[in-house]
Amino acid sequence: MAKRIITLYHAGQKLITKDQHALKGNTFSGTFGTVIGADVASTLNYKIGDSIVIAHGMGAVSFHNHDESPFTITGILAPTGTPVDKTVHVSLAGIEAMHLPPAQLHELLEHPEETDAQLLKVDSVSAIMLGLTSKFATFTLQRELNNYPDDRLMAILPGVALTEMWQMMSSIENLLRFISLLIMLSSLFGLSTMLLASMQQREKEIAVLRIIGAGAGTIFRLILTEALLLSAAASATALLLVFAVFNLSADWLASEYGMFISANVFNLHNLLVIGIILGATLICSLVPAIDAYRGAINQRL
Asked: How far apart are CA 229 and CA 129, in angstroms?
């Protein structure tokens, strides 16, 4: 027996009908009417009124096509940025009809109005996606369904399942954070090395500063200020680039991959990270600043 899964789009989900206007709440038109998601329509270039064939299989591999009972697209769901955009919705009557014997299916297609209702009667359902008007009743209903005595039922919360999956992925997230830390450290060491290497080329410049009255402390502070300005400029540039990329690609990521990424990069967490980076920059730049203070300046005076 083929699995039967009920997937009901939300009552407020918008549908694009034949006049290409987004309307709220529409039902299937006839036994072989189907409603498809926005990604399905755009990827396969489907339009309302086109016929599609339901097949057993996954992806490009189909081991049984129901060519004799094509479905007609009666609605296209407006984009939501969720997995609903990649779905095809058919009625339970349509699932029952396409599995009828050839003779009965032919009779149904020829005279749909004379069809015996018992032929399309649904006797079993494999899964139901259920939404509650009261979120506070979620765990109560889950417990009641799992303990239902008259049948073997299992209630699963998709959000909880996804949370458990992300917890399993936390090790990868920590690894990415460690890699980011290594990149930051290598950048700071590179900055310190660059400043140390530039001291020899800037001895005359520093000597002129001393001649016009700049003290050793002033030279020390100039080196620290230069390093802080470079680090601050790099941090600001990175924030602006991330902000621009997120803003420009937000709609595309939502429609193509269902990813909703906040473009709010100017938050307390990022400011704290930038503060830590500036503090580490200050520490790393002490070595070239002390070198400029002690040796390279006095040798030219």
From this structure: 55
